[in-house]
Amino acid sequence: MNNTKALKKNNLISVIRAVTLNNDLITKPEIARQTGLTIASVSNFINELIDRNIIIEKGYDISSGGRKASLFCLNSTVYYLIAAYISLDKIQFSVYDLALNVVVDDVINYSISETSVENGIETIVTGIKKIIQNSKIDKNFFVGIGITVPGPVNFKSGCINQLVNAPKWTNVPLKNNIESKTGITTFVDKDINGMLHYIKWKERLVENGTIVVLSITDGVGAGVVIGNNIYRGNHYIAGEIGHTCIDLEGGVCNCGKRGCIELYITKENILKVANRNLTEKYNSVNNIILIAANGNKTCKDIIDKAKYGIYLCLDNIIMAYDPDEIIINCEWLIDSPNIFSDIMNMIFDNNRLAKRSEINIRLNANKKIIIQGAAMLPYEQLFGSYETSIFVNENKSSRNFY
Predict the structure, then answer these.
(1) What digits encode the pLDDT tens for the residues 384-397?
(2) How many domains does the chain have?
(3) Are 143 and 220 contained in the same domain?
(4) Is residue 176 packed enough to be buried (19+ CB in 10 Å), middle (13-18) or exposed (0-12)?
């Protein structure tokens, strides 16, 4: 492709990104400001996108005088996205429009560690077919299926390398299996990378910066965006920080090592240790925090180890990647602002190279980010870079990507 065509396609994607980031209505002058393009160029791209039914005009902006500027937004119902998130104990399914409005969703309680891979694949396919049927949307209007899993994936081939907490799922060609059984283009990636795609498209980040997501769910991992590109490593295991050892005499992790950070900071492991030592059984980390605050030494030790483990994760991330921003996805921590504050103090009191004014560390408040991240895998293929974008490279008259 010559440079002129590549530049045009990149600029077209920049306009779509500006409209998407705005999450509502936007004018041509504002698009020009955000993209650095001229008004004339923006007008040409807007006209093309309207012709292709991707953007629609929707009224006029408020004006203090002079001609009112037209408002534009993404045509959210021109295409649809199928998302599936496979966690250790359930599979979530959703159909979204392009604005990530839920059309229909479903959840299947299912343990992937206790059943065969073949049974798991059939369960995923059944769930996808069911949700397509319930959506009442023609198959040709789906961009694709996005599936995320809690572990390393070769995202190019869609093959799951290994799920440490579900060891049967090793070298599983999930993309090929799903595509052959559904007839729909499928994209598979690690759950954290799906979150990164969501953040790239839906949140305003430091331009060309380094952004890290630390996710503490069933397991622990980090995802890294450097200059708008996800860093995966040569073997797709970049960011597997949960399997960093912090106690050589600690318990045995599912990865085979002792004392991994994961054993101290996930909800499941915090509750496992606490309930082993308490008369009453609890299902919320907040209960353990309250018991610790009331003087229970065992619970205090558990929470202190959790704080120390998260501190080590963040400190290592800072030293390894020198990020502009770290986003923490941890359901129990977002409900514990005092614990989060303690961890922030530990970081900046002990690391002389890290400055509060230079690193923004925040908690993710979007509880749907993992399943929405799965939806962003086909979205990224639709509107991603000009080399891979299905949309900018497809025949303009065709709606069928398959």
Answers:
(1) 765 556 666 654 43
(2) 3
(3) no
(4) middle
